[in-house]
Amino acid sequence: MIVIVDERELVTEGYHSMFDREGVASTGFRSAEFGDWVSSAPEEDLKSVRAILIGDCRDDVLPAKLRDRTGAPVIALSEQHSLENTLRLFESGVDDVVRKPVHIREILARISAIRRRAQEEARFAQIGPMRVFTDGRDPEIEGVPMPLPRRERRILEYLAANCGRRVTKTQVFNAIYGLFDDEVEENVVESHISKLRKKLRERLGFDPIDSKRFLGYRLVM
Fold this sequence. Notes:
By secondary structure, the protein is α/β, with parallel strands linked by helices. It has 2 domains: 2-119, Rossmann fold (3-Layer(aba) Sandwich), CATH 3.40.50; 124-219, Orthogonal Bundle (Arc Repressor Mutant, subunit A). The protein has 9 helices and 11 strands.
């Protein structure tokens, strides 16, 4: 999930719409709302945050204040095209500064690059004969690509990132759809995972997703 912080509702709604078209969950906050949420949100919710975009907001929304709660990359969206402003933003602790206007896909590419550098993430997770990529590519089974719809692919990526650990339906939903998407029912996760399990079973010959009622899901090989 991508979090956008900006005082202008029109801006946060605009980014939310653009990310949604790319199949990426997002949500928007004003400065005060964001500060309250970061300080009180459960750790499980914060783990679902892929990156934080800071636009026109109060000066007290600083990366240094976020590090104790989340290691998600922080990117400043700058409307002032000046060296002084760019340097000021970097000095505040942001991981990158992007000058507007900017295409959503460029933002996503920058987020992926920062996460690779900061967390030294592998470009893929090898789980038995299955290779699950972190850059949006379809997974491969024994070297052969397995095309998946975006939601199913994102769920598989999330399960692979937590391989061996059980995650709840709520955690999967938050990671794929965002924390505040009231237009989608949480039970949609069950439908996506059911379709994903069927496809994996057909290719692998067994079901790699272990599910326990009320406890959640776990990817095992």
